[in-house]
Structure formats: C-alpha cells, structure tokens
Amino acid sequence: MPIELLKYGLRRGHRPFRDIPPTPDLRKHYDVVIIGGGGHGLAAAYYLSNHHGVRNVAVLEKGYLAGGNTARNTTTVRSNYLTPPSIAFYREGVSLFEAMSEELGFNVMFSQRGQLTLAHSDAAMRSFRLRAEMGNHVGIRAELVDAKTVQELCPHVNMDLGGQHEVLGGLWHADGGTARHDAVAWGYAKRAAEKGVEIHQRTEVEGFGIANGRITEVRTNRGTIAAGQVLQAAGGMNGRIAEMAGIPLPIRCFPLQAMVTQPLKPFLDILLSSSNLHTYLVQSSRGEIVIGGGTDPYQLASTRSSLPQKESLATGALQLMPFLHNIKILRQWAGITDITPDFSPIMGASPLQNYWLDAGWGTWGFKATGVAGKRMAETIATGRVPDILAPFSLERFSRFELLNEMGATAAGH
Q1: Contact 234/243 with Cβ under 8 angstroms?
Q2: What is the largest CA-CA distance in the chain?
Q3: Which are the contacts of 189, defined by CB distance < 8 A and separation ≥ 6?
Q4: Which H or E run contains 219?
Q5: Confidence tier at 161 by pLDDT (50, 70, 90)
Q6: CA 341, CA 406: separation in Å to the nearest integer?
Q7: Contact partners, residue 38, CB within 8 Å, separation at least 6
Q8: Which of 199, 239, 202, 242 is nearest to 221 (CA)?
Q9: Which is it for strands 279-283 and 271-274: parallel, antiparallel or unpaired?
C-alpha cells in the first residue's frame, strides 16, 4: 500500500477527480426523494442504489452536503443501550462501521478503542450492572468494572478518592469506537452518485402536494418534483418537515454543544464519559481532545454555541483530567437534537402511504448512520418495515409501548 501511494503521488498527468458530480437540474419525477443530505439520507441512497437497484433517487439538502448534525456531533459509535431492541439495532450499526471502509472503498477512520462510562455512586453501579447483563444477553461486549480496572483502562483519570465525584467503577464497552463523520457521509455520497443517485445541494423543501393519503409532489426552492416514495431524514429539521406533510411528531429540539482543544500527544486511547459530570472526552486522530456533554437545558432550534455551556464542559473535563487546565480551546459548535419522549428514534411508516420517517435521533444519530440507512432503504425497496425497526415505529406512542433509553445516554440530558 505505501508503494502504491508513492506511485500515485509521483504520477505525472494526474487529473483531480470529484467525489460527487455537480448539482444537476431537477428532473420532473424520481422513484425516491430523500429529504436530508446528511449521513442517514446519503446512506439510504447508497443502499437503495447499490443493494436494491433503485437508482432514480434524488437527495435534497437545504444547505451543503452533511453540513447539519452529521458535521456537528462527536462521532461516538457504541451499542451499550438498555432495551433489547435498541441493543440489537445499534449492534448491527457497530458491525457496519467495522466493515465500512472496505465496503465503500473510502477510509472512514473507524477506531474501535472501547468506551468507559464512569460510575460515581452505588446507584450508577447497579444501573451499569443491568446494562452489562442486558448487553451480554443480546450479544455485545459490555462489563461492569471496579475502580482498579478503571485506573488500568485510563491511568490519567482523576479518581477523586473520597471526594465529591469519587470513581467507584464503570461500564466498559469494548465494542465502542469513533469514526470520521465527514468521511462517512462522503463515502456514502460518492458510491451512491456512482450508481446514478442525484445529490441536490442548496435545495430546500418548501411543501408537499398530498392526495388520497399519499405524497404526490415535493415543492422546493428550485421547482416541483413528483415522487414515488419520500424518505424524511432531516436531522434537527425533522419536526418542521413533518409538519409540512401534516404529521405531528412527538419531538422537542435542544441544542447540543461540544468543543475541541489544541492538539496534544496521544495519551487517551479510549472514549471516556461520566453521566454525573455530563461530560465525555475522546482524543481525535489529530491529537485534539473532543469534549462533549449533555444538551442545553432549554428548547431551541439553534446552532449557536454559548459561554455557559463552554464553562460547563470545561468544568467536567477538568474534574476528570485536571492536568488539562492550561490547554487552549480551539473550536466550539452546536447541533440541533430532535429528542423523543423515550429517547429513542422514530423509524418506519407514517400516516401517509408513501412517506417514511427517519427522525427523533437526539444524540444518537451518528452511530446509527449505516444501519438506519440500510434498514430504511430495505423498507422503501420492499414496502415492508423489517422486524428490527418495528419497535421504533411512530405508533408506539399511541400504544404506550415506549423504549426508554434516557438512562443509556453517554452524558446525562
């Protein structure tokens, strides 16, 4: 591989190539219109075109490719949830990340380094024991560890022995990892475009034509198009888009902020989180320390970052690793999380016959990029919701069959 890379670099007459073609004019009709050019929408386009032969597909993106929540998350990949349906779903998501670079021929820089969630109380230890046992039952690697093992896994963490945030143990999830978010989106986009999928950036959906319980047309700022099937995967805009289709979703939006420090020499080779401190840390491939936490405490559909949240994230990070106190913050950003009452997504059918939902992801959207795209593509291609998605239906709220995953967040919300 290094020799081939050297040959490639020294080759004369090299012509730069585009990963995706320029935005074309809109056609009058598409078999499938996907609203949202983030990771989920692009993954669905890839699986439709490559696995199901559905290639008359348009991806409509209001802004630029993967410029929403796909570009505004902290790239954690894991499957250590509470309920069997969630664990099984995210377990498949992790397995797709493990093979993603090879399948796409595009390096998504997946680093499976394990995730450690700290327990600061006996109640947290009991909760983590439940999650470990549920995970093992469904087939993932999760185990309850004591304080000594925590120190072995992460020698740099402040144990705060006898203090307010003393570490009693933790939940070790060896399957956890991280991947490069923009590479994931562009990998899916490139391979979908090669099969004929059209990606329309700067194309905003403004409304729908609806007749006989079906979407007949999608109205955009660049014209109106007819659609056989429509998939909504619009991240923080999911509630607004669904309202245009006359579908009220049980979603509330909160900002989710994160920030990154200046690069440091590698020292943190796991993902570290604390629900009590509402903080998690991971070191990127560039050496930066990515610091994330819980959502802002108020509803707002905004991507503006704030000083109070920066102080909150810094406080948690310094509690876990006090030696970071002189490190400079390089960037801070915010995404818009669309959160459901049970902290689980909504996937599958909607009240309209040809309108499919991929919404309500809250803070868990990135880790489900591949599996959500794969399974929603299967749903659209076959017209049948697969069993793995059935528990996440919109109808669960009317049946009171909720999937409560609030206690499985990496940082409390």
Answers
A1: no
A2: 68
A3: 19, 20, 37, 42, 45, 46, 59, 65, 66, 199
A4: strand 214-220
A5: confident
A6: 9
A7: 61, 66, 67, 68, 69, 70, 185, 233, 234, 235
A8: 202
A9: antiparallel
- Reading the block at residue 119, the tokens are 């327990």
Neighbours of 243 (CB within 10 A): 11
Tell me the residue ranges of DSSP E strands in 78-176: 115-119, 143-146, 169-173
Instruction: Report residue 242: phi and psi, to 5°.
Output: -65, -35
Q: Enumerate residues 6+ apart whose C-beta is below 8 A from 115.
A: 76, 78, 80, 172, 173, 176, 177, 270, 271, 272, 273, 410
Angle at 375 between CA 245 and CA 183, to 5 degrees: 95
The candidate with the shortest Cα–Cα distance to 398, out of 346, 337, 338, is: 346
pTM: 0.93
Q: Which two tokens stand for residue 114?
A: 């394990």
Q: How far apart are CA 263 and CA 269, in angstroms?
A: 14
Contact by Cβ (8 Å): 89, 388: yes
Q: Give the C-alpha separation, 338 to 335, whole Å.
A: 10
- Each residue's pLDDT tens digit, 336-365: 999 999 999 999 999 999 999 999 998 889
Model confidence pLDDT, tens digit, residues 289-321: 999 998 898 899 889 999 999 999 999 999 999
